[in-house]
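User: Hello! I'm new to structural biology and keep hearing that structure can be predicted from sequence alone. Could you demonstrate with Mediator of RNA polymerase II transcription subunit 14? Please show me the input and the output so I can see what each looks like.

Assistant: Of course. The first part below is the input, the amino acid sequence of Mediator of RNA polymerase II transcription subunit 14. The second part is the output, the predicted structure written as tokens.
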Amino acid sequence: MSSNVLPMYASTPSRAFAHSKLSSQLRAALADNSPAAPISPAPSGSALSLDESSGISDRDVHSSQEQTAHLSEVDVKSIHSSDSEDEPAQNPLPEVPANCGPPTIPLNVLLDFAIQHVYHEITVLAELMQRKTNDQGEQERKMSLVHFAHATRSQFLKLVALVKWIRISKRMDVCYSIDYLLDLQSQYFIDTADRLVAMTRGDLELARLPEYHIAPAIDVLVLGTYNRMPSKIKEAFIPPAKITPREQKLVTSRLNQLIESRLSRLSSGIPPNIKEIHINNGLATLLVPGEFEIKITLLGETEMTKWTLLNIKILVEDYELGMGLPLVHPLQLNQLHGVLQSRMNVSLNPIKEAFSFLHSFCVSLQLDVLFCQTSRLAAGRLRDNITIEKYDPKERVLVVGYWVKRSKSRRLTVGQVKCDAQYRVQIYEDPNDKLGGLKVRHFPHAPQLGRLDSGAGMLSIDRLLSETYVVRCKERLMRLRRILEAAEPRLEVKMTGISAPSLSLALLPDTSSKDEMMTVSVNSFCGKVLCNVHILSAEHEDVLAFGKALYSSQCSAHTIQMYLRKLRVALVIERYRRSVKALPVREVQEAELLPFAKECLGDAPAQRIILQFLRSEDYYLLVTFSPDEKAVVKTHIQLLEVVGDRAQFIQLEDDEMNGMHVKEAINQGTMRFSPSHKTSLQEECSREQRLAFAVATVEDRITYMYLAAELMKKGIGVDVRKDSAHVPGGLALHITDVKNVVPFEASEFFECCIRCCLRLDNRNRYTFQFEMCFENIPLVRDVPHGLPHRRDGEPKDRTSKDATWLQELNHINQSSPEKLVELIIHRLMRYLYMYKVVHQFSLAYEKHFKNYCNIEAYTFHKLVVSYGDNRDMLMILAFNVKSQAPGSSEDFFFLNFGQSMPHRQFNSTEIDWHQKPRWNPHSMMSQLMRDDLKETNDLVFTMHFLCETIRPLVAIGNFSRIRFQSQKSLSQLIGPDVHFPFRLKYHLYALDQTTLRLMQGNVILEIKLLEGCKIAVRDVSRYRPRCAGLFQLFSNIDSETTAIMNDEIAIPQSDNPQTAGPTMWTPEQFMDSLDERPEEIDPRMAITSQPILMSHDTIIKACDFKDTEGRITCPLDEYLCSISYLQRALLTLERMSPRATLNKNSSSNLSCGFVTIIDAKPDFIRFRASQMNGDGVNATSMVHYKIYLCPVAMTLKIRIEFEEGTNSAATADNLKTLTTYFEKVVFPCGDEYALQSYICLTRLTSFEATQSIANLMNVQMEHPPTSKCCVQLSLTYNNTSTKKLAPATKVDQPLQNIIFNVIVSQSRTSESFSVLRFIYRIKENFVVVPSANEKNKQMADEVNAETKTSGGNPIWNLVRLVMDRFNSGDWNPGNRDEPIISSVAPPTYVNPGSVAGPSSVAAPGSVSIQQPGSVLQPGSMMGPQSVNALQYGMHRQPMGGPQSMQMNPSSVGQPGSVGGPGSHQQHMMNPGSVGPGSVGGPGSVNPGSVGYPQWNPPSVGQSYHHPLHHQQYPPQ
């Protein structure tokens, strides 16, 4: 050990010498004040050591660039003089490594940072100064320049100071070396200390002197040999031999034999408490249940071998006291183990000694556990209820007292309370029976008291007390039962409950509910007697006092009887309180009464309740209670009236209180009063129910008194009495005389009225029933279905009707008597007025009207009559009384109309719910008929009018169903945008009972209902008639009954003639002077304002809507649509005239061509247009058109004529195809842009194009249902981006290129379709497909090559090729091409002066022009919009066009639901709102609200319109 340590100590002087040497070097370096050596520049430039706190270095620079090394190395040679050239001395300080010095940054990098910062500030300042131009900005600019100059100067001054500091910075290098040297020495000391600690704890721990082996040394010295080796060596390297399992089994078996033998010899001395002895594996386990368990064994075979105690287990447990741990600590158990082992070693009977020792310990432990449990209960849950009277661990006695009574005595000190336990329990160990364990003794003794189970191990004082409490409670209850039965022999006392016993007492003889039973129980914790009656409050004074009396030791029979009488009265009072809760009374306290009212209560018994009537607050019901031997509790009721400062009792009649004979009142819920001579059955009704009946009777009597007074004030005679025995309801207020309130003679009505009374029903709600009984009713139900209304066996022609009860309930809560009287009078007036008109009608009904109508119901306040051919129309008549005075002008009849199922379908098993919808057209004039009935009171005339006019009105009423007509195209043509471009197609309204007006645009038809089943129709359009051929329309239907009346009725003038609308168009407005002869006027299309007389059948046929080729229409509808279409077509053609088209200087070259209007009449329009034959704008050949109203079919047709020799393809078949296409597609479509596209198509004549167009139209019209390819011409284009409509077929201004759009699909109803778009070169006769699809281009090339070779026109060839490939699957609907029209909306025109465009305000005459791109310009035909079904309005229509937005009549309701004249939808919804030149034309609601645009010539320099002068449009 010394040899290893000495070298370490030997090196210490050298380290001390080195340390002293370094200290001298430090002192020499610090004393050296010579300047540093000159700085040698580094390759990367000058470097400077910067401190982080200098404020010049930037942290961002450190994070982005690596730190550089020192500018120059520390010169190790000291220079004594700058001019000396001698060899310098060596520096004693060590060199600082590169990474151990402070961080540095190159000076050039620092300068670059400063320059970049200044440049950035200058740039930002220059940008900000440009925005400051005012005077304030000039001042801010100057201040910004000053701040910038000051900041820049300060920054560069810091750099100058830094550069100057570099000259002397070399002196700081010495400090860096000193710092590094000190850190190095400190690390040496730390390493030395760590090494010494490691050696001390590791290597030197076993460096001690060994023990000297004397015996081997003697052997070696004496014998010269080494004979003995230490046993530690053997134990360390040679393990002991293990015993085998067989040997283990033999050993344990032998031990078991030895233990059995020894125990058998000791068996006579083994205590009997040891219940179990188990011998196994050489061990004997002895168990004393509930106390302990020990394990013993023998460690030898000799008789002298002592028993060895291996383990002791204490079985006494209490988890609450031990908090989950054993009660005996392991250290205590080890001590017990040692003491018991020593006692067993010296004992003659070790087994008995072990039992005696451990048994004594366990008994003491059990008693201590019980004491701890009792202490917890006394301090916790059973505080003040149990007490520990004695506890002696030596004597092993524990005495616990329970049911403690606390009392004060004069002998005690003030504040002290004496606690006396009524019962005690003693837990002890019997000295004479040491083996018996703990025993229990109760004071006083009783059977079946609680015991301790010592064998359980877990003793519980709580269980012992609980078992004891149950027995003690039963004892006390049995004693109380004997006391109660002795005090009240008739009182029935029952013992109930098993785990919680109690006594049940029936205080009243009729008590059957458990809530009214008194329950007497004993509190098991404190032993107090508890009394409870559920129906009474838990804090009831008498109940608590009775319980205290039973608990006290001084409880006499008289005291018990007194409390029982009080409780019976309290129970009856509570019964009464509960019985009147649902009645209109409330209980009041005596303190709430006035002083003079309290004086009246002086003689009344103290047990009483006071009930105040809610509806009659001046009346109080006083109910007093007093004990009685016979009735148990006697009640007395008095009525107290408090009026002003006076209070008095009112004597109640006997029939109100005791004379009510109740029978089956409870079971049936109604009161049936038996005759007065029969005996009363009050025993069937309990006492509180009789009180409720009495309160209700008194309340009824008071209410009737008030009502009778109010009725007598009105002059109505009344009588309050009961009805006969067979009439339920009790008291009733009978009305005997109403002559003073009836404004007319009503003797017949009162002869039919048997009884009129008012009853009060307060069972569930406080309601009044106005009851009237009639006989000889004028009208009864006589419909052919339903229940019969005459008795069997009576003749059908019997004049007297059955007696009928009519009872109507008025659910009026808290109503005042004045309101009830008013309602009674109103009800009588309603019956009287209804009876007046019904009685008069009943006389005519039996003679005449029963063949034309049926009575559905007559209930004296309402009459329901069904009429019509099918009896499916209902007339509902009622009378409403609104005024206070009977017979006032404010009263009126309610006349409503409805519908029902036809009578023939009531008994039918099959009902067609999909028939044409029915609505009652008389609802249009219900107000007019109501006013007439109010003036005349003549129901006979009203029913005559309804029966006579129902057939024609049902037909005419078809026009009142809501059907919208699109005005989007027309509004775009006129100019101003309309947000809701729809209008009602028709508007039907009634002027009076016999006059109707039907409006459709500018056309107004007046329909007169005449007698003799005749109808008169005339044209009453404003200013002049406009219906050409109106007589011819009805004459075509029935020429025999149709005639023109000679008397011409003047047309009413407009309310505002200046702005009401145009008169009628003249040829000068829309056409130039032409050298053409006008056609002769057809006399059948004459215009007249004379009424046209016809029969009902004629007007029904004219208005009968039917499904014709997919369109639901009728002759009159088709005629009016034609008249309206002619007016709209004239506007469309005027927009196609040269005057309304942009001039040639405009950049737009998409149009529908020019047309010239030749002649315009109400029944036709003639115009012409140049042919598109390849000559362009220089073409001289014309196409002549005539759109006219056919006098035979009374629908629109068109005639097309080409000049002779100009179109070889204009054959009769092709012309018929063109005209048929107009009739089936263009006209039903109703779209103005479709007409423009149609005209553009029919003008194309180059290279027999007419034949191709006719083929296309034929394919569309004659599409077979089985075909898999459906081809349709698209006439209208819907731009989804601009939401505008436009013609789908357009031509450029030079008339050289025309656009075609053809829709190809599998069927007309197919959801997927494709659009074939191509441009036809009119002059070159070839087609171009501007598409990115190579297949389409290839098809166009093939068609052009074929056309060039064989001649003909490529339009039909291309379409036919597409159809063939579509059928073969090469061209399918999924391959949708891109749209080729980017903007096809027409140019917008000037907004009218009074209507501004949406979201803009433009001056009158201003023009907003939209310039669509050229056809050949890139992007002008290819738009980004995707093609969908909304872009092509012609798709999936029966013949390619929509049905004018018309709806199925089955989907609409009654007229007027959208808005008639006067509604707020002026130019959107009102009929006639779209007229020439204005969205709100003639027929709109406010004619002066919408003006018309002024078409004035443009000023110089403007080129928006044609230079021709236009007159004001339209003319006023």
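User: So the tokens describe the shape?

Assistant: Right, they're a compact way of writing down the 3D structure. Reading them back into a model, for example: The mean pLDDT is 76.
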